[in-house]
Design a protein that fits this description.
Length: 459
């Protein structure tokens, strides 16, 4: 069975999940309509039933956002499907079918439903008897390359040794200020490991804006565009996007940049809505560019060499729209799986997960590429480069991208199998476990694909 990562490259449509129900929820018999579309993350044909208290207009809009075809008063009738994700947590209920015969996707479909969407996975017969072990055998996450090159004749010398320009080809990487990331790096490499989908800008884009005749405003807007152009954001938010179809906003589009954004997007730019779960590079490693992070939680979501100036631009837009911090405090950050895992609070393991007296580690149904043992109060690890090694980590074992994932029960705490690497501690043995003390066991099939994430007690 092979699956690929489900993490999001751009602000996702997935709602941050929670613990899935243990039994199938009772769905309403009220049929509002259904929508057939291609899943932004699964890349499979999906069909969503809108049930219960949905208003037709809201269901139509939800379907349009997914670029699907809506039909009122009917439900999906797929002939072959992996299963359905049932969600009855709100009066507006949904049932989403994964319409494919590819049983190799059974595990990822279940993970997407239960772990990220907080729904109940109801498998069809073709998945019900299949081994839904979570495992990634290809396209595993690989840390971004750090590439260096000599600028072309006539271009200024770079700031690195020998006048070179150096840049990380990855999410949130940036080239030198005044240069273009889409020119200096490979956007395909920078998008790898996270799915991409195009999405139209906010409907306010076409609204008249008197500021288009203000030279000072236009100069600041041009600076913001240039900062985005120097960062990997340009790979998804410009003509450099796949097939030239940008997602959410396009810095190459003529007219207002800010008017392309929703209110939440503006609040993220102003640092009012947190975007820490997206991750980010420290400025010292990223040509001076940084964004909101654990040390600067109220900075802008946009990578910049001038944090104060970037935040000020979006704060003025925030005020121009009449938005308030109080109102935005009730708005979810919209970062889906990234937030779900970043804010995840572990509970005691309920199965056989644990560490035996001889150090053997047991986890859930899956093969591991990352094994963490952390303090009980440690934050859950998420994305590279700054959120994948939380404070309180005692031991982390990595399987290389081309390596063979680890089978449950074959790893002992502090013992590094041949061909693997101990990411933490950098050298030497990890701290000894204290008998009777709780620890956070976090085992993943790949980055952002947890198999086990719960509290164990040392023997």
């Amino acid at each position: 069975m092979k699956i690929r990562t489900l993490t999001a490259l751009v602000v996702p449509l997935v709602v941050a999940g929670c613990t899935p129900p243990s039994s199938a929820p009772q769905l309403s018999s009220v049929r509002v309509g259904h929508c057939a579309y291609t899943g932004a993350f699964s890349k499979l044909s999906e069909c969503k039933d809108y049930l219960g208290a949905w208003k037709v207009a809201d269901a139509e809009k939800d379907c349009a956002d997914a670029k699907g075809a809506f039909e009122s008063g009917t439900v999906c009738t797929p002939k072959t499907f992996l299963g359905a994700c049932l969600d009855a947590r709100k009066p507006e209920q949904t049932r989403i079918y994964m319409v494919t015969e590819n049983t190799g996707k059974c595990g990822s479909a279940r993970t997407g439903c239960e772990t990220f969407a907080g729904g109940y996975w109801d498998p069809s017969p073709i998945c019900g008897g299949a081994n839904d072990e979570l495992v990634v055998l290809e396209n595993a996450f690989a840390e971004p390359r750090h590439v260096c090159f000599t600028p072309a004749a006539g271009e200024p010398a770079g700031h690195s040794d020998g006048g070179q320009v150096c840049v990380y080809e990855g999410i949130h990487g940036a080239t030198e200020e005044g240069r273009s990331f889409r020119k200096d790096a490979n956007c395909d490499n920078s998008r790898s490991g996270r799915p991409y989908y195009a999405k139209d800008p906010n409907s306010t884009f076409a609204d008249p804006d008197a500021r288009r005749s203000d030279p000072a405003y236009l100069a600041e807007e041009a600076w913001v565009r240039s900062q985005i152009n120097a960062a990997s954001c340009v790979c998804c938010h410009s003509a450099a996007s796949p097939n030239g179809a940008a997602s959410l906003f396009d810095i190459d589009k003529e007219g207002s940049l800010a008017n392309q954004f929703t209110d939440r997007g503006i609040a993220q730019g102003a640092g009012v809505v947190s975007t820490i779960p997206l991750g980010g590079w420290p400025a010292a490693l990223n040509n001076g560019f940084s964004k909101s992070d654990l040390d600067h939680p109220t900075d802008s979501v946009f990578l910049t060499t001038d944090r104060t100036r970037m935040k000020a631009f979006w704060t003025r837009e925030f005020e121009h729209r009449g938005l308030t911090a109080e109102a935005m405090a009730r708005v979810p950050d919209g970062l889906g799986p990234l937030s779900e895992q970043f804010y995840f609070q572990p509970k005691a393991c309920e199965g056989r997960e644990g560490i035996a007296a001889d150090g053997t580690i047991t986890w859930g149904n899956g093969r591991a590429r990352y094994v963490y043992v952390m303090g009980a109060t440690s934050r859950a690890p998420t994305v590279f480069p700054n959120l994948d090694l939380p404070e309180g980590t005692l031991w982390r074992l990595d399987v290389p991208p081309t390596g063979t994932p680890l089978v449950n029960g074959t790893v002992k705490y502090g013992v590094v199998p041949e061909g693997l690497s101990q990411r933490f501690p950098v050298a030497g043995a990890p701290a000894a476990l204290v008998s009777g003390q709780q620890y956070f066991l976090y085992v993943t099939a790949d980055q952002m694909l947890p198999i086990t994430r719960c509290l164990i007690t040392a023997p």
